[in-house]
Amino acid sequence: MSGATALLQALEQFATLPRVLIAVDFDGTLAPLVDEPMAARALPGSLDVLTDLARLSDTVVAVVSGRDLSTLRQLTGVSDPVLLVGSHGVETSYEEPAPQPGPRERARFAALEAELTDVLRAHPLARLERKPHSLVLHTRGLPEDAAATALRAGQDVAGRHPDLQATPGKQVLELAVRHVGKGVALRDLAAARQVDATFYVGDDVTDERAFQDLAPTDLTVRVGPGQTLARHRVDNERAVLRLLRALWAMRNAR
Ligand SMILES: O=P(O)(O)OC[C@H]1O[C@H](O[C@H]2O[C@H](CO)[C@@H](O)[C@H](O)[C@H]2O)[C@H](O)[C@@H](O)[C@@H]1O
Hey, which of 29, 30, 172, 222 would you mutate to test ligand 1's pocket, going by the most ligand atoms within 8 Å of its Cβ? Predict the structure, then answer.
């Protein structure tokens, strides 16, 4: 059986379940990757189909991202009934107000920011993204050598702060003072909403960790190449959109 046929069969079986969680990563899954993080946009139609899915009965829908919640709201423009999980699970649209960094976290954040600012001085083409609980060193668009040395400098900073959560990603290194993880967030949401199974699609390191944390009965899909723990794979964001449309048609026909 081809991979595409196996995925279609799995989707059909998933769509018949009484109550499901459909969760989707943002960057590299709904939105093609671009050099400037604030220029990322979901493919036309993909947020509409998520909203349509969320309006169906017994169908919980969430965008689960490393973006902080406020940025995720801004970039997607979606709100209830679509749920948002930001900062890799630290901030959610359904448990507000989000936790605020305490004095110790603020002190660790300030020390980290000072060291990463030094990294930027030495690697002026690299960029820093500030989120409430983390800092992200970005190297997309840099010459390969410059990107590699900037990321190594970031990893050296991480090595001096073992109390921080260091997460490599696609041409980024994220250092967080508070961490939950997409897998934990998905499992908690699935339990709270009492779903029978979770569909999750994503493309990056944090999504792989989620695939690992989900149950074998969940339906996991990797976007793009690379080793994966997901049970299925699609090529790109356009294929994700097709999957979501197929899921909507199947759930709507129940
Ligand atoms: O969990 P995600 O929704 O996939 O978010 C993960 C990180 O995505 C962003 O960085 C990635 O996308 C950028 C825009 O396309 C790209 O420039 C960068 O190279 C990618 O790694 C975001 O900026 C991070 O904060 C997210 O953690």
Answer: 172
ipTM: 0.99
CATH topology assigned to domain 3-98+181-252: Rossmann fold (3.40.50)
Domain residue limits, the chain: 3-98+181-252, 103-176
Confidence of residue 1 (pLDDT cuts 50, 70, 90): confident
| Beta-sheet strands, E only, within 108-188 | 127-130, 134-138, 165-169, 172-176
CATH class, range 103-176: alpha beta
Q: Which of 118, 108, 212, 200 is nearest to 161 (CA)?
A: 108
Kindly give the number of the ligand 1 atom that is closest to the alpha carbon of 36: 17
Q: Show the ligand 1 pocket: residues with CB < 6 angstroms.
A: 25-28, 33-35, 37, 40, 65-67, 129, 136, 138, 140, 169-172, 174, 204, 206
| Residue whose CA lies nearest to ligand 1 atom number 26 | 66
Contact 25, 46 (CB under 8 A): no
Instruction: Kindly report, residue by residue over 60-112, the tens digit of the pLDDT.
Output: 999 999 999 999 999 999 999 999 999 999 999 999 888 888 999 999 999 99
pTM: 0.97
